[in-house]
Design goal:
It contains three helices and six strands; from the N terminus they run αβαββαβββ. Helices cover 34% and strands 27% of the residues. It is an alpha+beta fold and 126 residues long. The strands form two sheets. A three-stranded antiparallel beta sheet has the order 1-4-5, with no helix packed on it.
């Protein structure tokens, strides 16, 4: 009987010890995503300024989805077309992505490579 009481007492002490673990006051983000310098508005202005509607695109409207990697130093590498619109629009989207300046790199505890997908909209200016 004494052994049983001692066992129950030890279990109670163990359980109460676990309940007293304090949560940290501040939790730092583990992952910070890469960003175009100046944010999304600056990216939209860059695209608007640099995209030239391709001749012979047959009045195609829509989006080309370009995937690329933002390297640890912010450089853009390996641009590829995920969703095509037309050969001409795809080529123009790749050209503009290759023109982009370095981004602010993303981090997972430290600077890391991130895969990024960018929709580029093509429409006829009226």
């Amino acid at each position: 009987m004494k052994k049983l009481l001692l066992f129950l007492l030890l279990m109670t002490v163990k359980l109460t010890g676990k309940a007293q673990i304090k949560e940290p006051d501040c939790i730092l983000p583990i992952e910070i995503f890469p960003e175009f310098k100046g944010g999304m508005k600056a990216l939209q202005l860059f695209l608007k300024k640099n995209i030239k509607y391709p001749n012979g695109a047959g009045c195609v409207r829509g989006k080309v989805y370009v995937e690329f990697i933002v390297e640890k130093n912010g450089k853009i590498t390996h641009p590829t077309i995920l969703k095509s619109l037309s050969e001409e629009c795809d080529a123009e989207a790749l050209r503009v992505v290759k023109l982009m300046p370095k981004w602010i790199p993303g981090r997972r505890f430290k600077s890391s490579r991130f895969k990024f997908t960018l929709p580029i909209k093509f429409e006829i200016a009226e």
